[in-house]
Structures are given as C-alpha cells and as structure tokens.
Amino acid sequence: MDVGHLKREEFKGELNGKIFGLMGFGLIAKKVSTLAKIFNAHIIAYDPFIDPSIANEFNIKLVEINEIFEQANVISIHFINAHCGENLNQTTLLFDRG
Fold first, then answer.
1. What is the pLDDT of residues 27-84, one digit of tens each?
2. 62 in Cβ contact with 45 (< 8 Å)
3. CB atoms < 10 A from the CB of 67, how many?
4. Cα–Cα distance measured from residue 89 to residue 98, given in angstroms and rounded to the nearest whole number
5. Bridge partners (DSSP) listed for residue 43
6. Angle at alpha carbon of residue 80, lines to 74 and 81, rounded to 5°
7. Residue 91: phi, psi to the nearest 5?
8. 21 with 32: CB under 8 angstroms?
9. Distance CA 30, CA 36 (A)
10. Is 77 exposed, middle or buried (0-12, 13-18, 19+ CB in 10 A)?
11. Which of 3, 44, 48, 98 is 20–30 Å from 57 (CA)?
12. How far apart are CA 8 and CA 32, in angstroms?
C-alpha cells in the first residue's frame, strides 16, 4: 500500500481483539476509545495528566509511553499543540501497525 493511497480492498477494518493505543486522553481520544470499543478493541492509553479514576471510568488501561509502541496494533495520537497560544488545536494522527 502506498502512503496516502488507501485502496478499499486492502483495508479490512478489523479491530476485533486488537490493541488500540491512545497517546493523550482528552475529549477526542475519549470519543475514539468509545468508538474503538464498539469493534471490540482493547484500549491502552498514555497521558501523564489524567487521574487513574478516568481510566476506570472509560475501562481503559493506562500505560507508559514505551508500552504504547510495544503493545498497540493501532496508535492514535491526541496531543494539544501548545505552540498555538490562545488558539489551542488538538492534533490527531492515526497509525496502523498491522
């Protein structure tokens, strides 16, 4: 598959039983985790700023950042771009590790 040229027949869309890693666990990542669970994905997340009770509330496992790269089949990155000053934007990137 060429980068930027996703062919529909090459994408199986299978998240069942996969480990979905979230880097950052803000508003958008919480919504992504809810959607991924619909497909029976297991959710792990790295966010040094959230309370562990939030992880329990969303039924996810908090891990260290290196564990995201070691364990996740899919990685979704959700960090605030603090360089934007008052107009904070959230950047979302998605990587499928196969």
1. 889 999 999 998 899 999 999 989 999 999 999 999 999 999 999 998 988 876 555 4
2. yes
3. 15
4. 29
5. 20
6. 115
7. -100, 130
8. no
9. 10
10. middle
11. 98
12. 21
